[in-house]
Amino acid sequence: MTLGTMKVWRFFTPAVLIIVYGMTLASIVAGAQWEVPDFSKAPYLVTIVMPAVLYYITPLRGWVNDSSHARIIENLRVGMVNIAGYLDKPEIYSWNNLRSLFFTLVDDNKSLSAKASLAYFNGLIWTGLADSAVIALGYALASVGLFYFDAPNATIALFVFVVITITSLLGKNVATSRQIAIGNEQLEVMKFEHKTAIEKRLNQLDR
User: How many domains does the chain divide into?
Assistant: First the structure.
């Protein structure tokens, strides 16, 4: 998977989840029948683009993923410093200062690029699970509201979406660990093939 493909899927995944979970809620509470829209038609296309845009401009994904993302990039940052064998200076050897080198090395090395493809795919799963947790929690809260209005099967809907939320969060943690493992595999390659380049960058930052 390429970075561009991952970005496209990351944009549309929340909208698909909003529609699917909404149809699930309607099915449980109102007995509505499932019907997959024909997204090739303009009116239906709007129904998926608009939720995607609205979700994209909210901080919801970040609220769920920021701590995991920090773990992932910190592992890469520390790993690069350890490859050089230097005493860590987080304020100088920051990820912002090392990120461009990391991705340059990845792009210039076929082995690292292959692992990057795995990282992009896993990253899509990782963010997708975070999106699933956020959206399912939203529908769980909606189910609570429906319960107070005596909607039929609202407690069943609440149970379903709470289970989805918990499962998604657990899955996100697994995907985070997998992302860190892939990063470690990339660092292992850099250790043997790009130590000099990393040392050069750290020396530049020390000036």
Answer: 1
